[in-house]
Design a protein that fits this description.
Layout: H1 2-8, H2 13-32, H3 59-70, H4 75-87, H5 91-95, E1 108-111, E2 120-123, H6 126-138, H7 159-172
Antiparallel strand pairs: 1-2
Length: about 170
């Protein structure tokens, strides 16, 4: 039932497997402490994941991705994706940039919420600075890429916008 609930939420198999692993650990600890007799998750099997090999875009494809990101229908998501591509930062790090973390000359910013929990400065070129400037014009709160609809105040993960950019690049050949 749990697995079907997760599938109905349109989660990817990798996300479902992470939830399953978390629940399995919790129930295993609970069983080891004697609070339950056995884990109800043991019969739930991991789902098959489509692992895509990593690859690098050609210089032309990279340039086209950034161009399309600047022209995306969802401007905030497009600018965030462009800045991620141009800075080498993860999109999750880009989403949580605060306006106060950006240098006055728009040529660098501080990432505070990195995956390893360390802060770091990222220096960028003029095209990335354009994405920051455009994001600042659209910002409505303390975040560079803000959203009035989210509880956090910053944008949701821009998967749909990214997928549209990739689809357009594929259509172009």
């Amino acid at each position: 039932e749990l697995q079907q609930l997760l599938v109905n939420r349109k989660l990817r198999n990798a996300s479902i497997n992470r939830v399953r692993a978390l629940l399995s650990s919790v129930f295993r600890i609970t069983a080891a402490d004697g609070l339950i007799s056995s884990s109800p998750v043991t019969h739930v099997k991991s789902r098959h994941e489509q692992i895509q090999p990593a690859f690098a875009l050609s210089a032309e494809a990279y340039k086209r991705y950034v161009e399309l990101a600047f022209k995306a229908d969802n401007q905030v998501h497009g600018y965030a994706l462009a800045l991620a591509a141009l800075s080498g930062a993860r999109i999750s790090e880009i989403r949580s940039i605060k306006v106060a973390d950006i240098a006055d000359d728009l040529r660098s910013f501080v990432l505070r919420d990195t995956k390893n929990l360390d802060s770091r400065s990222v220096h960028i070129g003029p095209t990335a600075a354009e994405a920051i400037k455009a994001g600042m014009c659209l910002s409505t709160n303390q975040y560079l890429f803000s959203s009035a609809q989210s509880e956090t105040g910053f944008i949701g993960y821009p998967r749909d916008t990214h997928d549209k950019l990739v689809d357009q690049m594929i259509d172009e050949g």
